[in-house]
User: Fold this.
Amino acid sequence: MSTSPEAVDDATDDATDDATDALKPDDVVVDTVVHQAPRDVANAPKLLEVEHLVKHFAVREVRGLSMLRSSVKAVDDISFVVREGESLGLVGESGCGKSTTSRLITRLEDPTSGAIRFRGQDMALMKEKELRPLRREVQMIFQDPYSSLNPRQTVGTILRTPLDVHGLAKGREKARTKELLELVGLNPEHINRYPSEFSGGQRQRIGIARALAVEPRLIIADEPVSALDVSIQAQVMNLLARLREELNLSFLFIAHDLGVIRHFCDSIAVMYLGKIVEKGWKRDIYSAPQHPYTQALLSAAPDINVVRGVPPRERIRLKGDPPSPIDPPSGCRFRTRCWKAQDICAKVEPPLELKESSGLDQVIACHFPEVKTSLVAEVS
Amino acid sequence: MSTGTSPSGASIRDRVGSAGDVVLKVEDLSVRFASDEGPVNAVQNLSYEARLGRTLAVVGESGSGKSVSSMTLLGLHNPKRTTITGSITLDGTELVGASEETMRGLRSSSVAMVFQDPQSSLHPFFKVGKQIAEAYRAHHHVSAAVANTRAVEMLERVGIPNPARRAKQYPHEFSGGMRQRAMIALGLVNDPKLLVADEPTTALDVTVQAQILDLIKDLQQEFGSAVILITHDLAVVAEVADDILVMYAGRAVEKGLAKHVLSQPNHPYTMGLLESVPSASEEVQELRAIRGAPPSLVYLPSGCSFHPRCDYQDQVPGERCVTELPELRILPNGRQIRCHLVDPERVLSQETSR
Assistant:
């Protein structure tokens, strides 16, 4: 219970400048005014390319004397690109495969098939030894700041382990761990404390510091703020935004909260039952969603601005829950909950493609796309 | 039920109230637990009312006392470890100090609760229909067959397809959204005047959350009961609540109409919360987070509990925020706040337009 808000605040502002000097890679010029500059991620070089990624988990079900073998199609042929400096948001409901995707990219799970190219190198089939240098480049921030830190290790040890593994900051490990604590707005004097002595928000900062210890280029953040209190969520979101600018990080940002995604991401991929159903730039997805599922998600998300005199938006309510990924519907997987479904939807799986007629940039997988602009009431 | 011709014939429309009547009155409620570190002041001097046909949202972060105060309504605390003072009157009956028999008579018939996690609040060994029927028979002298019919009716009413078959299934055969519907059916089977929903949609997906919120709204219209919605999600409050009570560190800090409080908060904490939430319909450069973290309920700060995190202390003369606990006072606009700021509306609105 040693929550010390003062320490957090003091460190947040003045500590960052020195700390980032030590952390920034040589080839990146950290500009302090980039906060305002629009990012041109559309033309940046590709950092991560995921192509036709598939992950099926085998499941066995015993029925009487016979055993049925089937598979959960957690991720079923998805492709996307994350460019340098880009933050790609992955949205969807539970069971849609967004967390599996993150575990595949970090190779915590082995993909069934497909390619995961990081700077052109395919890491989908790499052996652990080849993978190690790439693990330095791709780091993960977890959802639960309680279970993702070892309760028996001090913060110093937690942050030092990745340095030792990758042989970084030799001889000045302790100084480096203190820098990392300052970088995430924690008091470096707390280096000998245990995770239980920190609040949830502070623990999440420790998790972030651990990810940054090895100077990664790409951060996979799996629901990084959803376990935190509202007032702490904003602190952590702001910290991530600042680190992103200062260290020129790229993000694969997984969340179910459409407000959080809109705040943090440049582009968005919407997943449903292991498939990407719509993908595009943030402004297109929010202002002119084309896939019925995206439209339903946006319409269902409660919005605080309804009390602030924004015009009422179109109301779409889906029936039921998402079906099981063990036995997904034939054709379009969304058809069982879709109000537009017709015979073709059960027979032909719609490809993820650009619909020229819409005049918009996003790709969608639907036989009957239609642009809806009234789902998010924009605050003027 | 809505027609008053339930199969039992026990048409329990003995409800004399009409919309707007006070069902629940909480006055000066304080709840304290013993802990190793010392007494935990979970709730202090809390007063509020719930009215028929209206939804009151109780909002706060973890440790704000929002769940503790509602558990007290159902007598779900451990009496050996808990000290409760003040008064809770439910439909004329005093609950503080009431016997277990009295509480048992009120639970489900006058007040029912829907919990966050429907997985752990339904009994895994009993069929869903049986659980609902059991709750009905606890308050009505009817045969098992009549109670079962009633259970199926309720499942149908909360939008469960094929209710007769579903009633014979176990909770694990239900999906998360279905389970929460079944919980609501269980809560409403005895037509209580007050439904307490503690984070009812937090564990659910966005599209299912929308269904459940719609269902609670519809049922409230139909049954005319009072609803207390406990949540941390201000967007949910904006969509469904009539009244709002914002809690911080065990105390009420702002009370008023939800629409007014959320569009123009008068307490710095409420305003901080609102600015911390990124909206799906708006883009801001940077979220204005509240600094620091909520205090421990064992070691509350002196004066106003929010002062270590508040940006407006300098607007109050002297050190009052640090030394003196502000009273919950009524502003000219009818809003109640616990803050020393003389004209919070002006101070906070300047801040927003800055």
Remarks:
- Residues 1-38 of chain A have pLDDT under 50 and may be disordered.
